[in-house]
Structure prediction request, 963 residues.
Amino acid sequence: MVSQNVLQKYEMVIGLEVHVELKTKTKIFCSCPTDFGAEPNTQCCPICAGWPGALPVLNREVLKYAIKAGIATNCKIASSTKQHRKHYFYPDLPNAYQISQFDHPLCEHGYLDIETSKGTKRIGITRIHIEEDAGKLVHLEGKGTLIDCNRGGMPLIEIVSEPDMRSAEEAKAYLQKLRAVILYTGISDCKMNEGSFRCDVNISVRKKGEKAFGVRTEIKNLNSFQFVTKAIEYEFLRHVEAIESGEPLVQETRRFDSTTGKTYSMRSKENATDYRYMPNPDLPVIEVTGEMLSSLKAEIPALPDERKKRYMEEYGLTSYAAEQIIIDRETADYFEKAAAKTDYPVLVANMILTDIARLQQPDEPVIPISPENLAKIAQMAGEGRINSKTCRLLVQELWENNADPEQVVREKGLEQISDEGILTQYAKEAISENQKSVSDYLAGKSEAFQALVGQVMKKTNGRGNPVKIQEILKRIIS
Amino acid sequence: MMDEITSISVSKLSSLLAKKEISAVEAANAYLEKIQSLNSEIGAYISITAETALKQASEVDRLRAAGEKLSPLAGIPAGIKDNICTKGIPTTCASRMLENFKPPYNAFVVDLLEGQHAVILGKLNMDEFAMGSSNETSYFGPVKNPRDTSRVPGGSSGGSAAAVAAGLAAFALGSDTSGSIRQPAAFCGVVGLKPTYGTVSRRGLVALASSLDQIGPLTKDVKDCAMVMESIAVQDKWDATSVCHPNPEFTKGIENGVQGLKIALPKEFFAAVSDEVKNAVLAAAKQYEKLGAKVEEVSIPHLKAAHSACFVISAAEASSNLGKFDGIKFGYRAQNCSSVDDIYKLSRSQGFGKEVKRRILLGTMFLSTGYYEKYYSKSLQIRTLICNDFKNIFERYDLILTPTTPTTAYKLGEKQGDSLDIFMGDICTSSVNMAGLPALSLPCGADSQGLPVGMQLIGKAFDEQLLFRAAYAYEQNANIGQRKD
Prediction:
């Protein structure tokens, strides 16, 4: 194992390739439906199954969706672009070539701004191109292998980033931002578990301050943010260990095993296929007109970064909080509704990012509390009528039963206690019951003071105004 | 009677059928009987679909009796090259690979013909996957030239040309990638057209080289060719390279003659052919002058380069198009395979013939890293040059007249194994595919052995009308001694 000190000397260089399945009604080159989860080989035809004489015809919707992705990621859209054949033999690829794009892709030179603990950073997007998905092999234990052509010809875009990321955190932030932007445009469901948002990681490692890139490895088909993070962290260590011990690293493709958390070699560059790209003679050059571009631009709703800017300017959110809110479109919509109904939008954002986030399940993202009720909670908190502990309590309570929070506060007597007399009484009691804490605090142990605050809070059934309690305690003790 | 029916043109037969002087069943039977008696010798058909043909024919008779207005092709017996898909009928591409392949769909052109009640007699022999110029690469054996059965019929649409020449089909469909309709038409003394690229849908044509392939008719005379084109030149929304032809009334003005037309004779074509062929075509040029056209010598400097480049592009695209024949989903699968790589290697090694494998290997090389720029990219550049050559000529001329082939039909086996010599057989035709232009081959006399010589008329894109007009003018005025009606 290499030590933390050694790791500190290195940095990773990460570029990501993301495949996004577009949710057009029909496939990219035929009229087969694109629904997920159908019985094997019920959604295919001579075209997507590669039968002799069958010809592809580009689904114009795919082109439009892909252009929207390009616009949303600040790309330049080519005025004319070609489709290519990428050749390799594999049983799930019935034509022995995949229709993709080689040079001059549809979209180029874009970027996305991401937010991490270190602040804002711009990640370049090299290109976005359109292509078809391959079919799927189903391996049956002891019975051989079957081919399911349903996925063949499903419309994809491949989004290739520049090697601009330097940590797993940045990679994750980029993926989340990219997914958010795509979701906002409405061109894909981006469901990682269904494979409609898949990620390949290109990673190399070099000593900090070096300009040249190290040996690059590619980790294929990571289908969750967690796996991306784990795979990157594992691969970084593996590279550093190899460099430190002088072992050679090879440029190769690797796969990540989620059960072991390790990556394994699939094929090295020496065995890499020569894809023999050629322009597809069945498909004419695609022309993208100015009118087409402007009408597609008009169809794109306000994108995450526009909203982020507005949240910071209008509602006073921090850049970090705003990013966390906009990263999910539903959350942002929810936030906007609630924020509009209170004088304290920052409190709304805080509750969404802490109390609500804690209760949300990844597979059940819907918030059962109405935005109006969350706004009321924020309003009460902002006006000092309830404390933060009560806020959390109310969120919990309303999560189960979306009642009027004002009524809940009234009925359960949850109003914050700020009355000097009552709080002074409780403070005196707490001091006399906890002399040790007082002497500890006077001896310089700040935790002892917090214990005293807790004791007072306990006497108010959690409703005391924490600021006032601290003031009073300090006054008495000193 | 049988011989009479099978020797008359489509236009004549069509009018006899319309006047009910003969029935469609009679016509079909006449052809089927002739196929029965001659096919074993000529080898034009791989599959004969007598039963469905008679069913289609009796349907035509029923419709006509009921007073339905029918297309001119209704009841006309036709043969289809075996790389054009026919639903439920074997479509072999003359290859072991597809020996038992029955497509579950028709090619668009077959749908069009059936929709117009043409009667399909069967599937015609060809060079394997349309790779060849002598019809000797067929897995099902060679076709023989009906003019002299010791000779090749040309290729790859050898079965199509032979069937029309021998009266085994009133017309046939072929496909042309670098001369595969025109060259056998010339060898067998029939008319063949390679339409402007995009005019006839390629959907259902098992692709050889997608950017060069076109389906077209082979017929007994020029008017028939125009008639068939009127039936098949229909835009297909499921072929992205298919276009709406701006002048699809191909028989219109066919009798208007050549008075005042300017015809170019490119010297490079004449330099590449035998004296006998050259003289026959020059005689035809004289005939055009007599008919009022102006004929002048011109130059197409990139002809030779274009021919080589056409081979490179054709092989490159073929290597890609034939990847799907991997033994996995359909077609021939080798026995005793222990891995998926085995299935690929053995099925393709055993399922494809020598010429097909040769072109797949070459095509794969042309597209490989390190060779792509040198061969494939270079060939695309040459393609632009030859297009410009043609464009320059068509700024000053209406038509180009050339020989179709360097020689007349050669002996079976004479050039086998000499790929380079066979390759040169397309020198006069391949540049036309590179430029996507229309070109028609028609007979222009015979050599000293009585073998037919073909001449080629090349037109501007979508100017088939003028090709037919000029070809018809020659046909009507030349004493070519081969027409029988």
Notes: Chain A has three domains: 4-296, 309-412, 420-477.
